[in-house]
Amino acid sequence: MRFNTVLYKLKGFYKFGRTVPKLRGKVFVNRTGVIEVGRGLSIVGHPWAVQITSTKGANLTIGDHVYINAGVGIAANKEITIGDHVKIGPRTSIFDSNYHRMDSADKGELSKKITIGNNVWIGADCTILPGVTIGDNSVIAAKSTVNKNVPSNVLAGGSPAKVIRELEIEEGWVRE
């Protein structure tokens, strides 16, 4: 794919990193906030389009060598940080806002920061909710809903996601 074609498809990305992202299929980018992308980003928007949004005043940071699979939706209304070597499975949703209050007694913040650590694997059809931190080297099982923090080096799954077991991760090991 020619660089001009990539720029057209990714218009709205704030910063490209050191290499041009690899894209296949449809990728929709809505940016009124900041989007920063590291090296080696790979997005597969086929057979389902990928939607990446950063609203006014929001920050979305995607680290180096991140893989985003088909049908993923990422919407930053405050701040979302995705670490290096993260793999995000198809049809996963990562939203840092509830967008509306549950009832008239709900006075909490609508948007809360999401942090996804380095070398994290998020399985297919997961939902990552506002205010969550997922620790380095962790795996989120398919179809999980993450509504609380997940520590480093664990397998978590379910709805709501709970720690299933600890993982043995050697120093410097990166998921392929």
From TrEMBL:
Pfam hit, one: Hexapep
Keywords: Acyltransferase, Transferase
GO molecular function, one term: maltose O-acetyltransferase activity
GO annotations of cellular component type: cytosol
Domain of life of the native organism: Bacteria
Keyword Electron transport: no
Entry EC no(s): 2.3.1.79
The keyword RNA-binding is assigned to this record: no
Similarity-based family: Belongs to the transferase hexapeptide repeat family.
The protein's name: Maltose O-acetyltransferase
Organism lineage string: Bacteria, Bacillati, Bacillota, Bacilli, Bacillales
